[in-house]
Amino acid sequence: MCGIVGYVGPRSAATVVVEGLRRMEYRGYDSAGVAVVADGRISLRKKAGKLANLEAELAAEALPDSRQGLGHTRWATHGAPTDVNAHPHLSYNGRVALVHNGIIENHAALREELEADGVRFVSETDSEAAAHLLGRAVERNPSLLDAMREVCGRLQGAFTLVAFDLAQPGRIVAARRNSPLVVGVGQGEAFVASDVASFIGYTKEAIELGQDQVVEITADSVTALTFTGEPAVVRPYAIAWDLSAAEKGGYDWFMRKEIYEQPKAAADTLLGRIGPDGTLCLDEMRIDPAVLRLADKVIIVACGTAYHAGLIAKYAIEHWTRIPCEVEIASEFRYRDPIVTRTTIVVTISQSGETADTLMAIRHAREQQAPVVAICNTNGSSIPRESDAVLYTRAGPEIGVASTKGFTTQIIACYLLGLYLAQERGLKYGDEIRQIVAELSALPAQMEQVLAKLAEVGDLARELADAPSVLFIGRHVGYPVALEGALKLKEISYLHAEGFAAGELKHGPIALVEPGLPIFAVVPPQGRDQLHDKVISNIQEVRSRGARTIVLAEEGDVEAVPYADHVISLPVVSTLFQPLVAIIPLQFFACEIATLNGHDVDQPRNLAKSVTVE
Ligand code: F6R
Question: What angle do CA 288, 290, 293 make, to 5 degrees?
Fold first, then answer.
């Protein structure tokens, strides 16, 4: 949600900024803008809609050549997505250009105060108040950093701010509270941005800012302070991936590329975490093993697809550790006064590491003194920073809004955590762990087998492209797979789709079944007789009422075939691992349907990749 870029250096600032915004398009936005300083003036262009609109504006009326600029993609919260509400905003005295990500909760009071002082607002945004405040602060404070600190002291809520002052050329100042901000350090140039993707083409050296810090960049310096004025402790790091990871590499959509990257992402997530003797070594688990041994409950907190990964993990964690495991939607968690104690391990799952609902859930858990373990894909983001331990999924950048490799690697990381808990609590013998680890290690190759057969799913999508509604059913770990299959379809193809626990159908949803309704059914491996047979019965129930059944079953499952209008065969894996192969055709189906129906797969309407507001 919202992308921010600031640049100081020898290149054309407008070009660097617009390119940076392009690389952050995936975050979701509905207007965009850029401002530069040249010839003693601030020049600004901003436009509602996609970046292409801004680029057309720039083509019609180019910005002057400049060495310093900032830009923004806005996902509207306060005020409609119009040209006027787009960022950057200028201060009343014309000195400051500012962009903002987040929500300034006390904006109404600030607006009232500034208007009483004679300041005239031109937009409906909360952000404009910050521009005026900084405009006022730079008039009385010669230090841009101190002026920004003063402004931050006045703001409540979540914000990343990036700004410059016309009277202090060659400097950009930025601030962060509860919203992402990284600094890129190049040779004689520097960047600030919401995401390293925006400057990865220029430098791999990044600095992670902490909570409540301000930073000033010039072409050859970076100075960071806390909001209270002390030198800030920051973390320099090298970005582990390169520009090609943030590009489509011949695919039509990032989502499709990311579907195909899943075997590698899964293998990378396992890499180095399994010792030669088959035992697990999770070096990142900074939590005292005694805490893990004493734990009497696990609560997994996450949103959307990450929540579905958590639902799957619950089966494995309870099965391997016998510790009760609850899974909760992050936005619901803290409002129900959950029972969380020092012996509850709270596990948060987040691809972006910036999801505000999940972040707030962590804070609530930590207030109750519960140890928090983050499973996250984004190095240095807020969620791992605020957790006691982190297990990174190593999926690489996920740019398509619909999470794919994020999901499968989250399941793997959760399984590693569950096994680690079992290992530390002495609940599994070494050879049992080795056996499970061997199955995990075989998964990347099994995922490849599924990917090799996706053409059939493409044919199926062409047959079903006009279906107004699609249902997904499953049991046990197949149930969250059904939920995730439905979520993928609704978010990118805008079709009505629902996932149900197959056993629940007869308690209501079966009334939806009418002739021709496509229903995807995830059939458990044959080894689990009861479960397998029960799902087959559920398939018969819907088929006898006219549903068109698409059955995902393991190779050689002859019992499932007679009740299937279409069979998607899956490699033979244990029940707990089946979600990792079963979800792939469902992801691909959603991608195909959305493509066939002419939708923007990577940037579906109304959605943002990183949901940084509650
Ligand atoms: C769906 C999707 C979202 C995210 C959710 C949590 O495809 O991507 O449902 O899973 O917004 O995001 P993270 O994992 O970044 O916390």
Answer: 125
Task: Give the whole-angstrom CA distance, residue 530 versus residue 534.
Answer: 6
Q: Do 68 and 11 contact (CB within 8 A), yes or no?
A: no
Residue 609 known to be catalytic:
yes
Selecting among 2, 303, 376, 591, the annotated active-site residue is 2
Q: Tell me the helix, strand and coil percentages in the chain, rounded to 5.
A: 40, 25, 35
Atom of ligand 1 nearest to the CA of 378: 15
CA atoms within 13 A on the CB side of 337: 0
Say if residue 166 is in the same domain as residue 198.
yes
Q: Are 383 and 391 in contact, with CB atoms under 8 Å apart?
A: no
- Which residue range forms the structural domain that includes residue 212? 3-246
Count of domains forming the chain: 3
How far is residue 314 from each of residues 455, 480, 534, measured CA to CA in Å?
32, 11, 21
Question: What are 298-321's pLDDT values in tens digits?
Answer: 999 999 999 999 999 999 999 999
Distances (CA, A) of 118 to 75, 78, 134, 137, 606: 29, 22, 15, 16, 36
User: How many Cβ atoms are within 10 Å of 464's Cβ, its own excluded?
Assistant: 19
Show the tokens assigned to 178: 């509860």
Three-state SS for 253-301 is CHHHHHHHCHHHHHHHHHCCCECCCCCECCCCCCCCHHHHHHCCEEEEE
Q: What is the DSSP letter of 243?
A: G
Q: Is the pLDDT of residue 447 over 70?
A: yes
Whether residue 40 contacts residue 93, with contact meaning beta carbons closer than 8 Å, is answered with: no
Looking at the fold, whether 471 and 555 belong to one and the same domain comes out as yes
Termini Cα distance of the chain: 12
Q: What CATH number is associated with residue 206? A: 3.60.20.10
Are 464 and 592 within one domain?
A: yes
Instruction: State the pLDDT at residue 529.
Output: 61
Nearest CA residue ID for atom 3, ligand 1? 304
Bridge-based pairing of strands 235-238 and 205-208 is antiparallel
Contacts of 55 (CB under 8 A, 6+ apart): 18
List ligand 1's pocket residues with C-beta within 6 A.
303-306, 350-352, 355, 358, 402-403, 487, 491, 610-611
How far is 350 from 407, CA to CA, in rounded Å? 9
Residue 2: active-site member: yes
Nearest partner of 166 among 218, 78, 215, 93, judged by Cα: 93
Instruction: Classify residue 206 by burial, with Cβ atoms within 10 Å: 0-12, 13-18, 19+.
Output: buried
Using one digit for the tens of pLDDT, what is the confidence trace for 346-364?
999 999 999 999 999 999 9
Strand 213-218, strand 221-226: pairing: antiparallel
Q: Which residue out of 204, 257, 488, 609 is catalytically annotated?
A: 609
User: pLDDT for 33-82, tens place per residue?
Assistant: 999 999 999 999 999 998 999 999 999 999 999 999 999 999 888 888 89
Q: Return the SS3 of 515.
A: coil
Q: How many residues does the chain have?
A: 614
Residue 248 pLDDT > 90? no
The SS3 of residue 547 is coil
